[in-house]
Each structure stands twice: as C-alpha cells, then as structure tokens.
Specification:
The chain is mainly α and 351 residues long. 52% of the residues lie in helices and 4% in strands. The protein folds into two domains: 218 residues, no CATH class; 97 residues. It is built from 14 helices and five strands. It has a three-stranded antiparallel beta sheet with strand order 2-4-3. Helix 7 packs across helix 8, helix 10 runs antiparallel to helix 14 and helix 13 crosses helix 14. The termini are far apart.
C-alpha cells in the first residue's frame, strides 16, 4: 500500500482545522458531563471523568470551561464519538479513510454520531447552556459528518446520515447527490452549485428532478468536480501516525502518549506489514518485562532503555521518544498535583 499523508494529497479547503473540531468535541464532552449530573451528583460525574478537586456546584457555572475543569482532548480522544468524527474529517476533506472506527455504513457508530449531532443542532439544552456562557458549537462536527457521508455516496457507498433538519436533503434515489451534498464535496456555496446547474455551456453541471428535488448523478458529479479541480481521490488506510514529529509534538498525559503510539502501531502494521511491528512489541513484552504492549504503564514510560527499544520498533527518533515518554508522565503527575492542591485549598476554605 502506498505511503501517503495528508500533506501530499489533493484536499478540499478546510473551513476549520482538525484541532478546532477536537476542541468542539471536548466542549460537547463537558456538556454531557453536565447533563449526567442531572441524574447523579457532581462527585460521581468527576470521578467518571477522572478529575478531582472541583467544587460542588461548579459544574453548573456556564462560563467555567474545559480548561478550568482540567479537561483535555486526551480525556475523550479514545471514545467512539471522537474517533468516528476524526475518521469522517479525514475521509471528507482528504479522501483518507483512516479506519479509526467502523466502516462508514448505515447502523454503525457513524449513524449514531450523525443522529446525536442533528439533535444537538436543534437542542434547547444547548441553547440554554450557551445563554449561560458555555462554549458549545456543533457546526464543525456536522460539517465533517455530512461531508464524509457525501463522499461515501460519491464513491458508491451507502448513506449513513439519514437525518437532516430539512427533508429536501434526504435522498432515496440510489447513486445521486443533493445540491447540499454537492456543495460540500466542491467546497462551495449551494447557490454556486445551483448556478452551475442552470447555466448552459460546456461546464454545466448536469442534474435531474426527483419529486421536485434537484439531484446529481454520481458520474456527473465526479466529472464536474474533476473539471473544477475539486475531485479528491480516495485511499483507505490508517494514515494517523504516519509522520509523528516528536520535535514539535508533546503530550499532556500518559493517555495522550499511549493513544498516539497506538496509532503509530496501526499505521506501520498497515503500510509496512513486513516490519511485523505488532509481533515485535509482543516479543518485547515477553522478553523485557513490559507490563502492557499498549505503552501506557507509568514505570514502563520512565524506563529509558525499554523506551529506546520501543522507539526502534516504531521507527521513531530514540532520544526524542525517550524524552517525550518522560514528559507525558511528568505532565500527568503535574495535573494530578494541581488537582490535589485545588482540592486541599477548597477543603481549607470550607473548614
């Protein structure tokens, strides 16, 4: 399989970055923690989230955000929700299906994510929290989800996104796209697509009517996108972890470090099966006393010789890998210490 990365392929213009969408996902996570507190108490919610030292009732202060609650993307990045959206972002904008989750089909996690996002888009609960100062935005997530669904249809797959606030965008016709979906795939406004349909000439976008809706056949969509330089070729592989730049990339927690290494293992196993990455890690576990092959045990991360061997297997710079592993542990320790200090400070003020 070709070794391709997001930097070396044609891609659509991104109206938002992956990091911005991840921040929106994190804010949705905080919303869900707040909603959970309706059915239990704050202490149980923060225990579930792995946090401590947060004052009773503080979860209900709208303008208190993720940073104040020590929530970071590593807390949620392994969730099915986050992984599905990252897969959709990659596939939608870059044509990469990085296989972080299930295939993009009906009745998979992708359908559940689509349903949730549409609910959040028209949610009174979200509106109430925003009016109280909370930072909640679902637009980036919906855009990524809808775009991935449109590209899936364009490539002959089925729709996993049957929910829309506007029924005119629902498609029963197999092998066809709506104007809205075509606009997403072209990175253009819907009015631009309608103009391309109505304007006669060699660059006219062919369309047809179905129950008063304007639809575009797949072959016509592909031909027009190619002529406009907006057709993105599709590759299905786990690109995540392809170029892990340890000079620029640090880790805020052990969980974040472990997650990045798991992606690196998946990537190497797919693009270089002859390297036998997983087999080598399993052998290292057996021979070196490593507690887990998932590189998440604190003592293992601080074991420089052991991490040096892992770096070699993962084809990463030895010294930087060892230092980044130590950094992940130190930052984890610091976060726990800060939480303990906050808890002790709260206790001293209440006594």
């Amino acid at each position: 399989m070709r070794d391709v990365t997001l930097n070396t392929i044609q891609a659509l213009p991104q109206p938002f970055t992956l990091e911005q969408m991840q921040n929106d996902i994190l804010n949705l996570y905080l919303l869900q923690l707040r909603m959970t507190s309706l059915f239990t108490n704050d202490q149980r919610v923060w225990t579930l989230a792995g946090k401590s030292g947060i004052k009773e009732g503080e979860i209900w202060i709208g303008d208190t955000g993720t940073e104040e609650f020590h929530l970071v993307y590593a807390d949620v990045q392994d969730s099915l929700f986050a992984r599905a959206l990252e897969q959709q972002y990659s596939f939608g904008f870059f044509g990469f299906d990085n296989l972080l989750c299930e295939p993009m089909e009906m009745d998979t996690i992708h359908t559940w994510v689509a349903a949730y996002l549409i609910d959040m888009q028209g949610s009174n609960v979200v509106s109430e929290w925003i009016s109280n100062g909370a930072d909640i935005y679902v637009g980036s997530c919906i855009h990524a989800c809808e775009l991935a669904n449109a590209r899936n249809i364009l490539e002959g797959g089925e729709s996993f996104f049957p929910y829309t606030p506007d029924d005119s965008n629902k498609v029963d016709e197999v092998g066809a796209l709506t104007v809205h979906q075509m606009a997403l795939l072209a990175g253009m406004e819907e009015m631009t697509i309608r103009t391309a349909i109505s304007r006669k000439g060699p660059n006219q976008l062919k369309a047809f009517k179905d129950d008063r809706r304007t639809l575009i056949k797949i072959e016509d969509a592909k031909a027009w996108l190619a002529a406009k330089g907006r057709h993105v070729s599709v590759t299905r592989q786990s690109h995540a972890g392809a170029h892990l730049d340890l000079e620029k990339t640090g880790f805020l927690s052990i969980a974040g470090f472990s997650h990045a290494m798991a992606r690196r293992v998946t990537y190497l196993d797919e693009v270089k099966p002859e390297a036998k990455t997983i087999e080598k890690l399993v052998e290292l576990v057996a021979n070196a006393g490593m507690k887990t092959p998932y590189i998440k045990d604190r003592d293992d991360l601080l074991n420089a010789p052991l991490m040096g061997q892992v770096a070699q297997i993962l084809e990463l710079p030895h010294d930087l890998f060892v230092l980044r592993a130590q950094e992940a542990v130190l930052r984890d320790d610091l976060a726990q210490t800060e939480a303990a200090v906050k808890e002790a400070s709260t206790a001293s003020h209440s006594s």
